[in-house]
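Researcher: Let's do a round of design. I'm pasting the structure tokens now; please hold your answer until I've finished.
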């Protein structure tokens, strides 16, 4: 079944939001019931079949809706925060992993090289039970985060990484002093890692 070839412009736009038909979808925990008034009938059918194990294609098929209608429903559910995809989680993890590596690069100096800062980051993310509670299923290998299914939601990951950066800036202030951290923080926030 090659439904992607027959998609209208709107269907292709929905696929741009979703990713691929093989993307796994997860329900946002704060929306456990599909009976909310904001949902149309196809949205409810789709939401009721999202289990964190099935792909977009399987969910649409099981819900018994037209492929393109299902894509529109899933795209709307993703944009409104009812569901999220494995691809969104991977993108968030990659962005933050890059930001942490960039932090180590920017904060490195003659006394504290990149390896030193990578160790500081590793200590923060591995020795903090409070952080573990914010993003269950998240684990680290060096500066590379990975998740086990079901992954934390995008909101949980955002909160987690905000807390990591706050702890990291606090530690940097202890080591370098507030003025040096402020200057490097401005540089970190204004530049983005290449690649």
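Researcher: That's everything. Go ahead.
Model: Designed sequence:
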């Amino acid at each position: 079944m090659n439904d992607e070839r027959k998609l209208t412009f709107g269907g292709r736009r929905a696929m741009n939001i979703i990713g691929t038909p093989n993307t796994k979808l997860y329900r946002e925990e704060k929306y456990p019931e599909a009976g909310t008034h904001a949902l149309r009938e196809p949205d409810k059918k789709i939401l009721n079949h999202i289990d964190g194990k099935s792909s977009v294609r399987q969910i649409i098929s099981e819900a018994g809706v037209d492929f393109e209608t299902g894509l529109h429903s899933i795209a709307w559910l993703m944009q409104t925060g009812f569901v999220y995809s494995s691809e969104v989680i991977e993108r968030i993890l990659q962005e933050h992993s890059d930001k942490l590596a960039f932090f180590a690069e920017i904060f490195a100096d003659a006394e504290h090289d990149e390896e030193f800062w990578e160790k500081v980051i590793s200590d923060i993310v591995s020795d903090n039970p409070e952080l573990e509670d914010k993003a269950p299923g998240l684990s680290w290998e060096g500066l590379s985060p990975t998740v086990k299914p079901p992954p934390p939601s995008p909101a949980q990951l955002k909160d987690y990484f905000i807390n990591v950066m706050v702890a990291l800036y606090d530690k940097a202030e202890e080591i370098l002093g507030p003025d040096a951290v402020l200057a490097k923080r401005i540089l970190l926030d204004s530049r983005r890692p290449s690649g």
